[in-house]
Amino acid sequence: MTADSTPPAKRPVQVTVRIQSSDFDISDEIGALTAGRADVGAVASFTGLCRDEGGRLSALELEHYPGMAERAIRAIAEEAAERFELTGLTAIHRYGKIAPGGNIVLVVACASHRQAAFDGAAFLMDYFKTDAPFWKKEHLKDGGAGEWVSAKDADDKAKARWRSRS
Amino acid sequence: MTADSTPPAKRPVQVTVRIQSSDFDISDEIGALTAGRADVGAVASFTGLCRDEGGRLSALELEHYPGMAERAIRAIAEEAAERFELTGLTAIHRYGKIAPGGNIVLVVACASHRQAAFDGAAFLMDYFKTDAPFWKKEHLKDGGAGEWVSAKDADDKAKARWRSRS
Amino acid sequence: MSLKVVYFAWVRERIGKGSEELELPESVVTVGDLIAHLATLGEEYAAAFEVPQVIRAAIDEEHAGHDEAIGNAREIALFPPMTGG
Amino acid sequence: MSLKVVYFAWVRERIGKGSEELELPESVVTVGDLIAHLATLGEEYAAAFEVPQVIRAAIDEEHAGHDEAIGNAREIALFPPMTGG
């Protein structure tokens, strides 16, 4: 009876943003957002990994703008948390040299229901691609000088869809 | 040079489906789909957890149709893997009594690019909600007899959107 | 015709058993016919099938509509809308 | 006016440094003015800013368009389109 008349106070949203050279573990990150809570029904995650592009690459090197990166990502993460009514959101972006198969980026979005969790994670990834101050340079397996990865039109379109919906 | 003229053979798609009472670990499941591969750039996951519905529930009990469950989920998983050109897909659904905060379902979809991974995971979850032969019964914290959870119209609509796109 | 019929969730609870072997009259051709026939077998069946249109079915572990013929099926499952995921 | 300008990715590589303190002429009001001014400072700058419209900017760590005034900014960053994620 008490449970119906006095619903428990709404828990604060946990927003975590980390820019780091070290790797991450997705189980640990999900655990940090769900441990001791019984209001999280849905966890959507996205992990971006380094591909070798058909054997062409030996690594990707990620450069970033340290001061701005965390601030910009935190602003977007807090917008996502509010917009999709998330219970928690973690965003981790690595920098430095990352070999094929290695982790580059992680987003975990928690919510009561699944659509909000999926939308929160996809929204943050779309903004990561277009607005987070990171740049990728290719290192080639044959030792040749690699190119800077070009920004994709598709990413700008992916981001634009969130604007038209709001 | 060889890398350009003879691209490595396309790796087979890994589709794993498990119906189990025991828990799962998402790091292990992602690792099984990405270890030793350099063609996976994107991993989207969804974990469904038991909520206590504002303190009302002590557990959810999941009943399933054993013979049909694995067969139906595997058919849908293989359809998703082909449709979204996934490199791997894992679906795990638990049965039995699960306490608030506990894991119920996991979907992990791997692909070269992020939209395919997100779509694969969301597609499989939508079908899980409407077509997988599982039923949830509530157990109440106050000891009272719980109700069977009702199917949601929203789930049928979520599933229908995939049909209209194809 | 003899058939294994299996029940899940509140269909199972109302009928009071998870499965049974049934002899069916010739008049039962479709899944819908089977549900209508079962509803006549007693109070517990009447309760399970009081709103026939919400009942979902599977023939030999494949989803089936109410208008599908039972044919030579080995096993028919009857259950409420699914709530997995 | 003195300003810290920072460069990233191939803008940094072409100019050959990651940041510098610059004295700017009065005529430099907007980000676009700054880019046009920098392009006159030598071959390496001309190479970095040969296609000005692809250059993105941030004023004091906030994204800024080419028409935005520099005002009393402490730090302007110039870089190619971002490729994070």
From TrEMBL, chains A, B:
<dbReference type="InterPro" id="IPR003448">
    <property type="entry name" value="Mopterin_biosynth_MoaE"/>
</dbReference>
<comment type="pathway">
    <text>Cofactor biosynthesis; molybdopterin biosynthesis.</text>
</comment>
<protein>
    <recommendedName>
        <fullName>Molybdopterin synthase catalytic subunit</fullName>
        <ecNumber>2.8.1.12</ecNumber>
    </recommendedName>
</protein>
<dbReference type="Pfam" id="PF02391">
    <property type="entry name" value="MoaE"/>
</dbReference>
<dbReference type="GO" id="GO:0006777">
    <property type="term" value="P:Mo-molybdopterin cofactor biosynthetic process"/>
</dbReference>
<keyword id="KW-0501">Molybdenum cofactor biosynthesis</keyword>
<dbReference type="InterPro" id="IPR036563">
    <property type="entry name" value="MoaE_sf"/>
</dbReference>
<comment type="subunit">
    <text>Heterotetramer of 2 MoaD subunits and 2 MoaE subunits. Also stable as homodimer. The enzyme changes between these two forms during catalysis.</text>
</comment>
<comment type="function">
    <text>Converts molybdopterin precursor Z into molybdopterin. This requires the incorporation of two sulfur atoms into precursor Z to generate a dithiolene group. The sulfur is provided by MoaD.</text>
</comment>
<dbReference type="GO" id="GO:0030366">
    <property type="term" value="F:molybdopterin synthase activity"/>
</dbReference>
<comment type="similarity">
    <text>Belongs to the MoaE family.</text>
</comment>
UniProtKB/TrEMBL annotation, chains C, D:
<dbReference type="InterPro" id="IPR016155">
    <property type="entry name" value="Mopterin_synth/thiamin_S_b"/>
</dbReference>
<protein>
    <submittedName>
        <fullName>Molybdopterin synthase subunit MoaD</fullName>
    </submittedName>
</protein>
<dbReference type="InterPro" id="IPR012675">
    <property type="entry name" value="Beta-grasp_dom_sf"/>
</dbReference>
<dbReference type="InterPro" id="IPR003749">
    <property type="entry name" value="ThiS/MoaD-like"/>
</dbReference>
<dbReference type="Pfam" id="PF02597">
    <property type="entry name" value="ThiS"/>
</dbReference>
